Amino acid sequence: MCHVIVTCRSMLWTLLSIVVAFAELIAFMSADWLIGQAKPSSSEDGDNRTGGSQEPYHPTLGIYGRCTRISHMQFSRRDKLCGPYAENFSEIASGFWQATAIFLAMGIMILCTVAFVSVFTMCVQSIMKKSIFNVCGLLQGIAGLFLILGLILYPAGWGCQKAINYCGHYASAYKLGDCSLGWAFYTAIGGTVLTFICAVFSAQAEIATSSDKVQEEIEEGKNLICLL
Questions:
Q1: CB–CB of 1/222 below 8 Å?
Q2: pTM
Q3: Do residues 103 and 150 touch, judged by C-beta distance below 8 A?
Q4: Is the pLDDT reported for residue 49 higher than 50?
Q5: CA distance 64 to 83
Q6: Which of 37, 61, 76, 149 has the fewest beta carbons closer than 10 A?
């Protein structure tokens, strides 16, 4: 018989696991890893009758995507064009970024799997006599290592021609040049830190769902057990 066990610690671990997976996925897909040097915004015919702003804009560059301004639409609300610059894996600008994409993708796949499984830990607490929390915590630790490898390799690709076009000739491996880091990079770092926190916290979730108080509730015949 399935016993639905909900504790404060197990629920918090589940929510954190889901948040971490989505955060890493969104960061990976974003083009806001690098914010390029300011570029002038000027219309093709020099006509400013629309009253649009002539302030410089900053193009952004991701691992496989980019955002730039469309010159003939600069006064439109939809003046930005975002999308992948690489049509396939081999067209990613740097070999280091290709390795980054592989490691991040592997880590995110593991995190998404754990996030999906974590929803069912309220009803299933063990697999083949092993705690599902401990197994998931181990997987999150492995995912965190993949994410760290990807984030370490990413700055090594700042010397590629694509990054130089955005960041100026002073850009090189681990040197930003005229660029700055975007929110996606910081989100990926924050998600990596939270991944290890989730891995550690999974042990607390396992302790909470196998406590003596939970066992007493099960022995009393309760199928729904909620403990703070």
A1: no
A2: 0.83
A3: yes
A4: no
A5: 9
A6: 76
How many domains is the chain partitioned into structurally? 1
Q: Is residue 179 part of a domain?
A: yes
Count other C-beta atoms under 10 Å from residue 173's C-beta. 13
Distance, in Å, from the CA atom of 95 to the CA atom of 108, rounded to the nearest integer, reads: 20
76 occurs within a structural domain: no
Question: Does the residue 85 lie in any domain?
Answer: no
Q: Would you tell me the crossing angle of helices 95-119 and 183-209 to the nearest 10 degrees?
A: 30
Decide which of 8 and 226 is more confident: 8
Nearest to 98, CA basis, from 20, 156, 59: 156
Q: What is the pLDDT of residues 97-127, one digit of tens each?
A: 999 999 999 999 999 999 999 888 877 766 7
* CA-based nearest residue to 188, from 17, 3, 23, 13: 23
Q: Find the length of the chain.
A: 228
pLDDT exceeds 60 at position 26: yes
Per-residue b or e along 127-165, where b marks 16 or more CB atoms closer than 10 Å to that residue's CB = eeeebbbebbbebbbebbebbbbbbebbbbbbbbebbbb
Supply the CATH number for residue 26's domain. Answer: 1.20.140.150
Terminal alpha carbon distance of the chain? 23
Residue span of the structural domain in which 130 resides = 4-35+94-225
Do 193 and 23 touch, CB atoms closer than 8 A?
no
Q: Which tokens is 118 given?
A: 């974590």
Place of tokens 């729904």: 224
In the predicted model, is pLDDT for residue 50 greater than 60?
Answer: no
Cα distances (Å, whole numbers) of residue 54 to 63, 69, 117, 179: 29, 12, 50, 21
